[in-house]
Structure formats: structure tokens, C-alpha cells
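User: I'm preparing a small set of examples for a lab meeting where we compare how different chains pack in three dimensions. I only have the primary sequence for this one, and I'd like the structure in C-alpha cell form so I can line it up with the others. Please keep the answer compact; I'll paste it straight into my notes.
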Amino acid sequence: METAGRRELPGQTFVMVSKAKQAIALPAVMDLDSLDGIRDGLIDAIDEGPVLVDASAVERVSTNALIMLISAGETARKNQFDFAIERPSATMLTAIERLGLGARFSGMMRG
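Assistant: Understood. Below is the C-alpha cell output for the 111-residue chain.
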């Protein structure tokens, strides 16, 4: 018998858990002043499950911010959660390429 996310068999109950993607929208300016807030948001999201990062608004990004995103992606993978960056701005893509980080970001970029 199945009811709202549960499948019951005689003598046993299974709860089927599906974690929803956590959405994070990056700010226009990702510099040293904004990293603490971004980091805290990423940590909370990764603790909950899969993460989808919207990078379309990024106008300025520091090297430290890009390294933090790489670290967040690796942490999510270690926790067996998907981590994706969608719609990265031209500014963000340029910074990634200039720093030679294209290979590190290739698996997490979408759109």
C-alpha cells in the first residue's frame, strides 16, 4: 500500500525521502565583503540537499569567491548531492577562464 511518500508492506514501513533542490541566487558583487553571507547560505543549502546556484546577476567576482564555489561543489559531491551553477554571467565566465579554472567549473555549469 502506498500513501503520500510512504510505501507500506506487511510488518514494515518504508519512508521515501526526496530532497528538493535548494536555490541560491548570487549577488551582483561577490567580493571579500560579501563572502561570509554567501558562504553561510551555501553551507545551509548543502546541508539540506542538492543545490542550484543562479549566477546570472554576477557583475564582479573575486578569486576567493570562485574558489569558495569550487569548494561548495566538492562538499556537495562528498555528501552525494548535486551542485549546479546555472546561467553564469559573462563576467563570471571571463573570470573563470582568466584564472584557468575552466576545468574545475565545467562539471557544475548549466546554461
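A couple of notes for your slides: The beta strands are 2-3, 6-9, 12-15, 22-25, 29-30, 51-54, 60-61, 83-86, 109-110. Residues 96 and 102 are 6 Å apart (CA to CA).

User: Perfect, thanks.
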